[in-house]
Design brief:
By secondary structure, this protein is α+β, with helices and mostly antiparallel strands. The chain has four helices and eight strands, in the order βαααββββββαβ. The protein folds into two domains: 103 residues, PH-domain like (Roll), CATH 2.30.29; 63 residues. Helices cover 39% and strands 31% of the residues. Keywords: Membrane, Transmembrane, Transmembrane helix.
Length: 184
């Protein structure tokens, strides 16, 4: 275990990204319901106008979505409510980024390059500004703290300065989401 010295501050990050994942988990939990209802209405004991093949197809879809809900949706929602966001902890000589129920990174400040960037994402026929903090380690791996939501964007300037970057974002032009680091 590295000794980074005394704890200085903690910043919540990627909250908008976490909420988006929470919506996916919620959809997975609810998705089996319409398929189960269709299977019931197609069954002989439903309204009497259904068919066995329709019942089987809808029932199988309900089982698949039910399994996804149990394996992915419920744990995702529980994780969202028990640990609602990722956090970056700053110490005297290094930082630790923690995603509860997920990965974590720790690094001495001198082992990472920090870029506070502004890029423009094509979005619904227009360009949407995206502020992010890219932390690149010596091995070339990059993690990203996303400023998609207002609360997340407000944290980035202070976090960037604390990690050795610039307060003002560097404009890197128009990029597609696939060409940028994924929020950790």
């Amino acid at each position: 275990m590295r000794d980074f010295g005394a704890h200085q501050a903690a910043y919540p990050v990627n909250r908008s990204h976490d909420r988006s994942l929470g919506l996916v988990a919620a959809v997975l939990v609810v998705a089996p319901v319409p398929f189960a209802w269709m299977a019931y209405t197609e069954s002989p004991w439903g309204d009497g106008t259904g068919s066995i093949p329709g019942m089987i197809a809808s029932g199988l879809a309900a089982l698949v979505f039910g399994a996804l809900a149990v394996l992915i949706g419920v744990p995702g929602l529980l994780g969202l409510f028990s640990h609602p966001h990722a956090t970056v902890h700053l110490f005297e000589r290094g930082a630790i980024a923690i995603r509860h129920r997920g990965g974590s990174w720790s690094w001495p400040y001198e082992n990472a390059t920090v870029r506070h960037v502004l890029w423009h994402e094509p979005w619904e026929g227009d360009l949407r500004p995206r502020k992010q903090l890219w932390v690149t380690f010596r091995d070339g791996e990059t993690i990203c703290f996303d400023g998609l939501g207002d609360a997340d964007a407000a944290v980035l300037p202070d976090l960037s300065v604390a990690l050795g970057g610039n307060r003002e974002p560097e404009d890197v032009g128009t990029l597609r989401a696939g060409d940028t680091p994924t929020p950790f």
